[in-house]
Amino acid sequence: MKTKLFFSILLLAFFTVAYSQAPNSFNYQAVARDLSGNVMKNQAVKIKISILKTSVTGDAVYSEIHSVTTNGLGLINLEIGTGNSKTGTIEGIDWGTDKYFLQIEMDKDAGNNFSLIGKSQLLSVPYSLFSGNGVQFDMDLVCDENTEGTIRYNSDDKVMEYCNGTAWVSFGNSPHDATCGENFTDPRDGQIYPTVKIGNQCWMAKNLNYGQYKESVFHNDPDGHSDVANNSIVEKYAFDNDTSNFALYGGLYDWNEMMNYNSMEGGQGICPDGWHVPTKDEFDELVETVGGRDIAGKQLMTGGSSGFNFELGGERTMKGGFSTSASEDGGIWTSKTNPTDNKRAYHFYFTKGSDNIASHSADFKVIGHSVRCIKD
């Protein structure tokens, strides 16, 4: 079976090889999945890394091979620059004179029959590597097609920037350092979430859609039930059991699954690293920032002026059915448990055409609501 790999550079961290030299390696992390989307856990694989010059079809100025084993989460961790069977050298790359692209190939059987996984441009060229060729300090340097890919230190704002061909763009050392308002790519599955700053908070501006689909089965049991389990796999419901609804509404999660079976208020839950499930106090602050409960529903729903853009996604009922229409209502979980009834938790409820927003503590944790993550 052919295998594909969802990947992103998670950390551009470097290791000094000598005080007078630029470091010659940087970390790379990826999640391996098969064509069905299943994580490849604890599996030995071979990865071939190539750095291409000028374009995705350009010549490889450097290549290496790594023999690695995925961990229990399907993660691959390696240092580019420290592999075997090398061609060329990392320190020999003149980062400041051209564009460079990262090419990933893999043999899922740990042999030498590599299949192409993907290619992507190295826009955020590792600063410590580039500094071996010289970082620009010229604040008057024009960013255009001739300087695209150039990195400079902005002494006014005290940040590193790269030229994307039309404008200088600041960047950090990890995807979690991205400026709020820019897109965030979840390194676990490659899904992209817009972000928005509202007051002093940074929110994902799209409903979370992480995990594997789990069918919701209707049972006429008065106490309700959950169809997901604490099995080390993040599972999500699709509204009306229609997986095409994930693209618009995101997933629906029961409270325990969302919290990753940890009841600590403000915990990370199933949010990516650097983000967490909002507390009730944090959501209350959001509501007050956009004008209070009487108008918060209108401000926070799609089309509202806040940019939060909550897409009504309906709910999965406690018996396993679904609300009448996903576009008519919807709720967002908080991480706060009802202090007098451990089977229930707080959520905020939205209704189509209503300007206000309601806070409820009476929802059973087996009910499926939408999730929004807030930045740490």
Q: What is the secondary structure topology, with strand pairs?
A:
Layout: E1 3-8, E2 26-34, E3 44-53, E4 60-69, E5 75-80, E6 84-87, E7 100-107, E8 115-121, H1 127-130, E9 151-154, E10 159-163, E11 168-170, E12 184-185, E13 192-193, E14 195-198, E15 201-204, E16 212-213, E17 235-236, H2 246-249, H3 255-258, E18 275-276, H4 280-289, H5 293-300, E19 329-337, E20 344-351, E21 358-364, E22 374-375
Parallel strand pairs: 16-17
Antiparallel strand pairs: 1-2, 2-5, 3-4, 3-7, 4-6, 7-8, 9-10, 10-11, 12-13, 14-15, 18-22, 19-20, 20-21
Radius of gyration: 23 Å
Strand order of the largest sheet: 6-4-3-7-8
> How would you state the average pLDDT, rounded?
83
Number of domains: 3
Rounded to the nearest angstrom, the distance between the terminal CA atoms is 39 Å
How would the global form be characterised?
Answer: globular
Q: What's the count of strands?
A: 22
Question: Summed up, what is this model?
Answer:
The chain has 376 residues and is mostly beta strands. It has helices at 127-130, 246-249, 255-258, 280-289, 293-300; strands spanning 3-8, 26-34, 44-53, 60-69, 75-80, 84-87, 100-107, 115-121, 151-154, 159-163, 168-170, 184-185, 192-193, 195-198, 201-204, 212-213, 235-236, 275-276, 329-337, 344-351, 358-364, 374-375. The chain is globular.
